[in-house]
Amino acid sequence: MEGKTSYSDLVIIGAGPAGLMAAAWASRQGINARIIDDNAERVQKGRADGLHVRTMEILDSFGLATSIEEKAYTLREICAWNPDAENDDRIRRTQRVLSREEELGRYHQLGIHQGFIEQKFNDLLEAEGRLSVERNIKTVSLDLDKASSTNQNAYPATLRIRRPDEACNRETPNGNGTNLSNSLESQLKGSANIWHEEIIKAKYLLGTDGAHSWTRRQVGLSMTGDRTEKHFGVIDIIPLSDFPDIRISCSIHSANHGSVMTFPREGRLVRFYVQLAETEGEEFDKTKITPDMIVQRASQILSPYKLDYDYCDWWSVYMVGQQYASTFDKHNRIFLAGDAVHTHSPSMGAGMNVSMQDTYNLGWKLGQVIKGIAQPHILGTYTAERRAVAAELMEMDQRMSKFYCEGPTSDAHDYSKFRDEFRTFLSGVGVEYGPNILVPPVRDDKEGAIAEPRNGSYETDQSKLYSEQSLATKIIVGQRLPSHQVMNHAEANIVHVHSVLKSDGRWRVLLLAGDIGQPHQMARLKTVCDYLASPSSFVHIYTPDGGKIDSVIEVLTIHAASRPEVEFSSLPEILRPFDPKLGYDYWKCFANNNHGEEGRFSDAYEEWGVDKNRGCIVVVRPDQHVSYLCELEEIEQVTQYFSQILVRQKLDN
Amino acid sequence: MEGKTSYSDLVIIGAGPAGLMAAAWASRQGINARIIDDNAERVQKGRADGLHVRTMEILDSFGLATSIEEKAYTLREICAWNPDAENDDRIRRTQRVLSREEELGRYHQLGIHQGFIEQKFNDLLEAEGRLSVERNIKTVSLDLDKASSTNQNAYPATLRIRRPDEACNRETPNGNGTNLSNSLESQLKGSANIWHEEIIKAKYLLGTDGAHSWTRRQVGLSMTGDRTEKHFGVIDIIPLSDFPDIRISCSIHSANHGSVMTFPREGRLVRFYVQLAETEGEEFDKTKITPDMIVQRASQILSPYKLDYDYCDWWSVYMVGQQYASTFDKHNRIFLAGDAVHTHSPSMGAGMNVSMQDTYNLGWKLGQVIKGIAQPHILGTYTAERRAVAAELMEMDQRMSKFYCEGPTSDAHDYSKFRDEFRTFLSGVGVEYGPNILVPPVRDDKEGAIAEPRNGSYETDQSKLYSEQSLATKIIVGQRLPSHQVMNHAEANIVHVHSVLKSDGRWRVLLLAGDIGQPHQMARLKTVCDYLASPSSFVHIYTPDGGKIDSVIEVLTIHAASRPEVEFSSLPEILRPFDPKLGYDYWKCFANNNHGEEGRFSDAYEEWGVDKNRGCIVVVRPDQHVSYLCELEEIEQVTQYFSQILVRQKLDN
User: Fold this and answer.
1) Which residue among B9, B42, B47, B49 is the active-site one?
2) Of B73, B98, B493, which is closest to A76 when you measure between CB atoms?
3) Contact assignment for A247 to B580 by CB distance below 8 Å
4) Is A583–B268 a contact, with Cβ atoms under 8 angstroms apart?
5) Contacts of B581 in chain A (CB under 8 A)
6) What is the pLDDT of residues A214-238, one digit of tens each?
7) Is A49 a catalytic residue?
8) What is d(CA A532, CA A521) in angstroms, rounded to the nearest whole number?
9) Is A317 helix (H, G, I), strand (E, B) or coil?
10) Pairs of CB atoms within 8 A across A/B
């Protein structure tokens, strides 16, 4: 059957967690996108199973965190077991460590299988009704027309696919004298008749099709890195065991049989990563491994404790190695993410997290460029920002594999110390982007010294912007904004700041207005608002005609005055815009913890290292990363910041 | 068309919140039940909209709290406005009060419309797949055969219903020469053909069919109480207003125009309860009231602030009055709940809560009696327990109506003081049942003095049981068990006790084992476990053949030892039963906050007023209410307690 040609702004190949994250962004931003997958069903069992703090924050920004958290195993403690000094045929507990994830964010490390997360994304796509996963799609060819790549209106990628032709099957006439069922009939007709070819012309294309990525091969990117001959078995079972820490995540080293890492899961499942015996001289034959062999090996390592199982949910064998691609894009038109550009060992549960974070970084940029809100050159930050993360992951994984594969030595096996080195990065909250076009450098990077506090307006070279890190010592420019509790001014409800930074594609400008109960501080805020209300301010010139004033950049205010002393109606109206049908917007102004509320919730100014008598402006990207920090008086520089990133929709009046 | 006859263990008439709560219990307990409603759809707008702390705890026990909490308005602050002393044409804020619901439980008072809650129950029923609401059902007649009411196997209630005969409509032949649509064709045939009659013989029947209850009329119960001539308008609008507390729940009294109470809601809605002008001498004509009139009246009261609206979601007019029924059941076979047996003014949002709590009280009792687990005489506690609550509600509502309807006087208008009198009852956490067959009296009730602490075993009159309140001074016998955090011993996860007291119909025996790091306390626990393991203990004799040991009564342990000093494997096995396919049960043993964990979570023993060197046993009903408190040595008395309530399934060996 001859292929029809269709047009799409974005085609996503592969509907695993990374692809679905990109699809969620596409859905939220309302762009013309498709997501295809060659499997008939989502992953039902096994594969990835760990979620870290930052991933949960991201899932929460799409409204998906609560149902996942309710079902998952919560990791609160980690134990290390090592050979007993008096009898090295036995292991004994050498360390018990609190996970202390509450120091990093609102979530804990969780254990839940990948398929459940995919299902939540599928539910989100279905509820929003804009796109859903097209399954059973075979990719045939992919071409990129380099010449048209610089033309924003062009569709430089040509993807040829084959799909089961359901319409054709449905049209098979009844009553043709046979009693074959439709599907059997179709099979008998041969594949030529039941597959339908389609040519998709795409403005942008994303390959999230896994470690054996078809997309990567089409664009000719290669992976570089190391492979070892170390093999691990990974198995999900309901354990029958007297090991006392069977429901605790453990790092277990035996004297003579290798190591096991365990990770409990939802329901009664426990995952085991089991170091398999090396075959001297011979090549390791994966096909000879069975689940019984993996569990038996784990049982030897756990001695004197017993380990057996009746139910095995899933198992696999992997070879330790680290590989990643030299770039994550082709002409900023075809992008790759997740396992398609970085592979490593699974034993710290990083893979699914880093993969979803890849496309969480990319998805809003693609959406804004496709919609004509942002300039195409911001797409160049994707490879820069995410390849640096992949590089760090490779290094961490190498050291971790060494930790697990090498025999127990007193120094290397201080598990707590080892974990401390990586936990901030692994949790995802330590990831820092820039400096680049989206994240200007901080002043002390360039001038070697922290600038002195200034009075009045701030003079700078208009062609260069610098963030002033000292204004908010614990809001690290380039990292995600840490979430703390604040009080909705109009409702008195206590909310986390992240709960108002939903992933809907909008930029946020946070006015940390300070103690506006002080007349001079209120005067400073009013000056900011006078500027915002002027036709040349960023909220006007980057908002499309007919769009609401907060549709591209939302201004949020968090003041540090005593809330009872500041009436909602005394706040400048541009901070709480009035709509003739809906009234004022009561969900944009917040109060920091203050008089009479001490102890009820956290002091965000204190946690962020912001002076209540000074305040500052924080520009937050649509992915919650902090891009720019400046004084209240420097509000015009926020327009300058956006001038290099966004597309001007209106001329100054 | 002639009616078929069917049999059902329980028929629920009316699928509002009270009926759906009963249906949820029926679904959870797997009984043969039906729920019917004469409306074609659930409530879409208006009606009840307030949820209190205890109701949220109950909804959480069915897994429904989170999604409701995420969507609802959270009440954290309440303001009182009264005439300005200097100009009584104006109102001014006279009080700002924190709701302080966190002192009562894990939830706040919430504002969300009834239909959303009904939808969550419908979703639960659908997910569990046992029963769902049958709609468009008209009730025709109800008879109760008193003679067979004492026979447990009889179906004494006969309910005749009419339903749209979908099967009949579907069978209308095609191709009969007309091109009428099926539905039009059916209409033309007349109602005699499209309604199908059915006779349902029911063991038990529950009427949750509202203030104008058909069921109540059939059984001839009358309502007694007072009605006034005070009328209020109630309206849900998106307000256009400069009133600064428009998103705060307010009690507002004007000097000359009456009072308004406001309650913000999900989305942008705000509900107003507006006192309407009394018509001198004439009879009040409800039919003349319009939404504009209600809002205009509210606007007068709010002066000098403006109030207008573009969108009105729902409105109604009600007359203040309090009425309730003399009994809530007929021969313990037909029961009534919710508005069917108590009506009052809606302005404190109590109605839906008390109604759901009625059937939360009844549902597990019906389930256990129908399943032959409990003795039928426990059903007598329903009217006793819930009518007392209704009586208290009537009294509260009378005083509250007086507060709103009487003009502002300095004393009556200390809103904070007024609220404090009622908040524990209104929140639902102060509700206390007994003494009765399910809740034995506490010792000092009977003997006029608190018993002295005892050593060794406790001697008592075997025919009478008394709870020893002094063993847990803040676990009030008859009230719901307050929830505090404890740590899962095997997983180190911190959980609320309520999260392990799900509404699944099971009784719980909580062994507060004390500091089992002390040998003598561990010895006490082992004595308890030896008894539990014996064939005559309650976990054996009340469990049906083939049932799991925890299927009727679940034993949960919360010890107060340092968790690292007590290995999971050292806990007696009956506290963590082993299953040959599933392994040990890791979710029944918990540690109180202890060494190294201070500050991370609450100290439950301290909060409950339990001595860590002594401990106690707490028997908790399937509805989380505490029925019995005794010493660890008194474990045999727990069997005695159950002997008056449950049906013995096995003889002692």
Assistant:
1) B49
2) B493
3) no
4) yes
5) 238, 310-311
6) 999 999 999 999 888 889 999 999 9
7) yes
8) 17
9) strand
10) 81
Domain boundaries, chain A: 443-643
Residues in chain B: 653
The ipTM value here is: 0.91
Determine the pLDDT at residue A416.
Answer: 79
Question: β-pairing, A553-559 with A589-591?
Answer: parallel
Contact residues, chain A, for B311 at CB < 8 Å: 581
Residues in A closer than 8 angstroms to B241, CB to CB, are: 583
Neighbours of B256 (CB within 10 A): 11
Tell whether the model's pLDDT for residue B545 goes beyond 60. Answer: yes
Q: What would the two tokens of residue A351 be?
A: 């893979």
Q: CB of A156 within 8 A of CB of A203? A: yes
The backbone torsions φ and ψ at residue B367, rounded to the nearest 5 degrees and listed phi first, read: -60, -45
Which residues in chain A are contacts of B242 at CB distance < 8 A? Answer: 569
Q: How confident is the model at residue A538 (pLDDT cuts 50, 70, 90)?
A: very high
Q: Which residue of B has its CA nearest to A95?
A: B564
Residue B453 has pLDDT above 80, yes or no: no
Residue A13 tokens read as 């190949």
Alpha-helix runs per DSSP H in B350-478: 351-370, 380-405, 415-427, 443-447
* Structure confidence at residue A593 as a pLDDT band (50, 70, 90): confident
Cα-only R_g, chain B: 27
B273 belongs to the catalytic site: yes
Instruction: Describe chain A by its helix, strand, coil percentages, rounded to 5.
Output: 35, 30, 40
User: 């109060």: which residue's tokens?
Assistant: A591
Which residue does chain A place closest to B100, by CA atoms?
Answer: A600
Q: How far apart are CA A165 and CA A194, in angstroms?
A: 5
pTM: 0.92
Task: Given CATH 3.30.428.10, say whether it is the number of domain B443-643.
Answer: no
Exposure of A626 in the CB half-sphere (CA atoms within 13 A): 31
SS (H, E, C) B14-63: CCCHHHHHHHHHHHHHCCCEEEECCCCCCCCCCCCCEECHHHHHHHHHCC
Q: What pLDDT is recorded for position A406? A: 76
Higher per-residue pLDDT: A500 or B285: A500
